[in-house]
From TrEMBL:
<dbReference type="Pfam" id="PF13609">
    <property type="entry name" value="Porin_4"/>
</dbReference>
<feature type="domain" description="Porin">
    <location>
        <begin position="7"/>
        <end position="304"/>
    </location>
</feature>
<protein>
    <submittedName>
        <fullName>Outer membrane protein OmpU</fullName>
    </submittedName>
</protein>
<keyword id="KW-0732">Signal</keyword>
<dbReference type="GO" id="GO:0016020">
    <property type="term" value="C:membrane"/>
</dbReference>
<dbReference type="GO" id="GO:0015288">
    <property type="term" value="F:porin activity"/>
</dbReference>
<dbReference type="InterPro" id="IPR033900">
    <property type="entry name" value="Gram_neg_porin_domain"/>
</dbReference>
<feature type="signal peptide">
    <location>
        <begin position="1"/>
        <end position="19"/>
    </location>
</feature>
<dbReference type="InterPro" id="IPR023614">
    <property type="entry name" value="Porin_dom_sf"/>
</dbReference>
């Protein structure tokens, strides 16, 4: 993301602070959205899509080279108005980062998890192997509007390897009642233009779908991008297995992308068919300067069509 540096202050203090800076950056989009599962006249099937995200990143580097920093996000859209989220605060030294608060989350940050998605908005995100019918986004992730998971995480990068461990618990924020804990981790390795990642997540509930084993593989063959993902979501009667394949092709400023995903093994606990297949197709045209025209169509788990089209840009 291209950052716009609005304030840089160099400090030389005996207390040990060497340099500090604050950066603003973000992205925006405007277009139209269609959802065939909406029922008229109570809900319009077509509506305006508008969203603006502004990231405020502040950091300072001590004399010993250790960086201390934080991020706060402002987000505004056509549905929920404008909100300021909870902060993520981190300490970084070399390839090691320790962070707390509104953490990124290991599964959320895992390479390849979002690869099978299309369109301006991601539409129903049905291609993600970590999303299954009736149970979407049930893992720790950075929240753009609230406090998020409120946890701790450690990220370590050495050469072509990256490891990420995250932990959240209601104990960390002093919430009463039953304790809810989630421990997640992934390891990823890059080689010859390919990335392979394995992720694990463990929640509290016996049949919780937030218990996950996730594998992703992605890379390029010439102008073609290819990817594969597989996941076991939940356990016991709530276990759902899902896999997806995705691909893309670049032709100058135009990129075509698509995916096919299938899930099975809902068991007796879910009143849904034993298997679901979704697929999507998207396209983008690079206008330069971080701006693109983006659109997509998707067949969701509910066997309904979704589509969007608009412009997005980074600043």
């Amino acid at each position: 993301m291209k950052k716009f540096l609005i304030a840089t202050t160099a400090l030389t203090l005996s207390a040990g602070v060497a340099a500090a800076e604050v950066k603003f950056g973000g992205d925006a989009r405007l277009g139209m959205n269609y959802d065939g599962s909406r029922v008229a006249p109570a809900q319009s099937k077509t509506w305006l899509e508008k969203r603006v995200t502004i990231n405020i990143d502040a950091s300072t580097t001590a004399d010993n080279g250790v960086t201390f920093g934080a991020r706060v996000r402002l987000r505004s859209d056509e549905v929920a108005g404008t909100a300021v989220n909870g902060a993520r605060v981190f300490v970084r030294a070399g390839g090691l980062t320790v962070a707390g608060g509104n953490i990124l989350g290991a599964i959320e940050s895992m390479p390849g998890v979002y690869a099978p998605s299309v369109g301006l908005t991601g539409l129903a995100w049905s291609g993600m192997v970590t999303n299954v019918t009736g149970r979407y986004f049930d893992w720790d992730a950075y929240s753009s509007r609230g406090n998020g998971a409120e946890g701790l995480e450690v990220i370590y990068t050495m050469g072509d390897f990256t490891g990420h461990v995250s932990y959240s618990s209601t104990k960390l924020v002093g919430v009463g009642g039953a304790t809810v804990d989630t421990l997640s981790a992934y390891g990823a390795y890059k080689f010859s233009g390919w990335t392979v990642a394995l992720g694990l997540a463990d929640g509290d509930a016996v049949n919780d779908s937030s218990d996950k084993i996730v594998l992703t593989v992605g890379g390029k063959i010439g102008d073609f991008g290819v990817g594969f993902g597989a996941a076991r979501n939940g356990k016991g009667v709530s276990k759902v297995n899902k896999f997806a394949i995705n691909g893309s092709y670049a032709m100058g400023a135009t990129t075509i992308s698509g995916y096919v995903a299938s899930e099975s093994g809902h068991g007796a606990a879910a009143a849904v068919p034993a298997a679901k297949t979704t697929f999507g197709l998207g396209a983008s045209y690079d206008l330069g300067g971080g701006a693109s025209i983006v659109g997509g169509v998707e067949r969701t788990n509910a066997k309904k069509a979704r589509a969007d089209l608009g412009v997005s840009f980074r600043f």
